[in-house]
Design brief:
mainly alpha
Length: 69
Amino acid sequence: MIKSPVVQRWKAEAVHDVILAVLKDRFKTVPHNVAKRLREILNEKNLTALTVIASQCADMDEFRAALLS
């Protein structure tokens, strides 16, 4: 199977939107620098892990730390 960079980006953008929606629902706002850094990540496994963290983290600082690690 050929991995298209365009398809990979589209899939990542969809996951970015889900993660941001979860964070906004839980914490009401998402700092611009967090959203910007998240949108730089395209790796599917990393995004899956960040989705779980977004749903379970205690606060935005905990998510930010996971995002930067």
